[in-house]
Design goal:
By secondary structure, the protein is of the alpha/beta class. It has twelve helices and twelve strands. Bound molecules: glyoxylic acid. The site of glyoxylic acid (GLV) has 7 residues, from loops.
């Protein structure tokens, strides 16, 4: 009998076709958002599930799928998966690292530039017909060139963001769980390791690129925003929940910081409506990796992990190498 898999969301048709050569595939090209109960029902008899960062694989769901051998996430972040529960149940978990580093680094810069130079605010103003004359003090923003860039979370994407700052003659400060090697720091525009507090006090532009976990919940809240310069820009391309959105709204409204560029939100896609009333924030709908080549690379990476997992091989991007794969009978 061929293994059964669920592809929980719409994905490139050719990726589905390739998986269908090996597996009995249940797909969802209508892109219906399954409730947890629907997902539980669908994965009950499945050997693997291919999900995106939007599907939550809780311990309860994993327990509801006795045949499940692999959860393959089409995302680099995997805070949507209870990895400990998967490991305890003998289920492999994979993600799609590296293939999106450069595209996501580009996005951080797009948001930084747009927020600092008031690009979307200016465009809305122009479209609304307000542009009647040039003014010496019209839409003044913050300089990016020559400024100090602070990066919180200095993994591969953070380092790619830092390297792009060389062309802007910027100084780079970073904060991370662990310090980079001197070679990595040199390669990241001579990035200097500092405490989170020093970074927030000194940086003109702060970019958040750290993974979400209970430890990183509200890494930026009211006390941290209070440390930032009144002209500073805050960019979040990491995950909702790393920033306390209510505190950020209050800080933007009171101009305690200059501007923000946000690609991720608490409770997205149902983000806080008060953001919409603020002109000093650039809002995008979680599109950090959204280019055709990168989304394809992610889709293919997730598929390759799934094929390996169900072929008795170690998937290239296995997140829980300690998993006892013998807990599951082989396919
Ligand atoms: C996107 O947010 C990802 O984690 O890939």
């Amino acid at each position: 009998m061929r293994p059964k898999i669920l592809i929980a969301r719409a994905v490139f048709p050719d990726v589905i076709a390739r998986l269908a050569e090996r597996f009995d595939v249940e797909s969802n090209q209508d892109d219906h958002i399954h409730s947890a109960a629907e997902l539980a029902e669908k994965i009950r008899d499945k050997d693997a599930v291919y999900i995106t960062g939007s599907e939550r694989m809780s311990a309860e769901l994993i327990a509801a799928a006795p045949r499940l051998k692999a959860i393959c996430n089409m995302a680099v972040g995997y805070n949507n998966i209870d990895v400990d529960a998967a490991t305890a149940a003998g289920v492999m978990v994979t993600n799609t690292p590296d293939v999106l580093n450069q595209t996501t680094a580009d996005m951080a810069w797009a948001l930084l530039m747009a927020a600092a130079r008031r690009i979307t605010e200016s465009e809305h103003w122009l479209r609304a017909g307000h542009w009647k004359k040039w003014r010496y003090d019209g839409m003044l923003g913050a300089d990016v060139h020559g400024a100090t860039l602070g990066i919180i979370g200095m993994g591969r994407i953070g380092q790619a963001i830092a390297r792009r700052s060389i062309g802007f003659d910027m100084q780079v400060l970073y904060h991370n769980r662990s310090r980079l090697t001197p070679e990595q720091e040199a390669h990241a525009n001579d990035a200097r390791y500092v405490s989170k507090e020093d970074l927030l006090r000194q940086a003109d532009h702060v970019v958040l690129v750290l993974p979400y976990s209970p430890q990183s919940h509200h890494t930026i809240g009211a006390p941290e925003l209070a440390l930032m310069k009144p002209t500073a820009t805050l960019v979040n391309i990491a995950r909702g929940g790393i920033v306390d959105d209510v505190a950020l709204i209050a800080a933007l409204r009171a101009h305690r910081i200059g501007a923000a560029g946000l690609d991720v939100f608490e409770n997205e896609p149902a983000f806080h409506p008060d953001f919409l009333g603020l002109s000093n924030v650039v809002l995008t709908p979680h599109i950090g990796s959204a280019t055709e080549p990168t989304r394809r690379a992610m889709a293919e990476c997730a598929a390759a992990n799934l094929v390996a997992a169900l072929s008795g091989e170690i998937p290239p991007n296995l997140l829980n190498p300690g998993v006892d794969r013998n807990l599951k009978r082989s396919t």
